[in-house]
Amino acid sequence: MGKLIEEFNSYREKMNDRIMETANTNIKRFFALDTTTYANGALDVKTKEMLGLVASMVLRCDDCIKYHLGKCFDAGVNHDEMNEIFMIANLVGGSIVIPHYRRAVEYWDELSLESGV
């Protein structure tokens, strides 16, 4: 696993476990809501993850961007689709999204290299 991916996934898992050690019912419900929202429904998982990625880029949350990039990759988003996702995020979010776009491309490249795509 690439360094960016390993560091992100390891830290996220460690801190989520730590949070759940003392989480109250509301925090646990919020985490569960996040999980169930991205399940298949009227929209499929792939579409929901693409929407999540665009929103994360526009909101400029690097952790969220990495998370949704991984989920998009797992859902089978291809390079052409990813380029359109990036275009929409930049169009909606404006030039302030460009630094996050750079890091997103770097992370996407690492995901792609890892799988040999």
Description of the molecule:
The structure is a single chain. The chain is an all-alpha fold and 117 residues long. It has one domain: Up-down Bundle (AhpD-like), CATH 1.20.1290.10. The chain is 80% helix and 0% strand. The protein has helices at residues 3-22, 25-37, 45-59, 62-74, 79-93, 98-115. The model has no long low-confidence stretch (mean pLDDT 96).
CATH architecture group name: Up-down Bundle
Which percent band covers the strand fraction? under 5%
* CATH H-level superfamily title: AhpD-like
The outline comes out as: globular
Gyration radius (Cα, Å) is 15 Å
**Helix fraction by DSSP (H/I, runs of at least 4):** over 70%
Query: What is the CATH C level class, in words?
Result: Mainly Alpha
Order of helices and strands: HHHHHH
Kindly report how far apart the N and C termini lie.
14 Å
Biggest sheet details: none
The CATH topology label is AhpD-like
Please give the number of β-strands. 0
Tally the helices: 6
Give the averaged pLDDT, no decimals: 96
Structure classification? mainly alpha
Low-pLDDT segments: none
Pfam family, one: CMD
Domain Carboxymuconolactone decarboxylase-like: 28-106
Protein name: Carboxymuconolactone decarboxylase family protein
GO molecular function, one term: peroxiredoxin activity
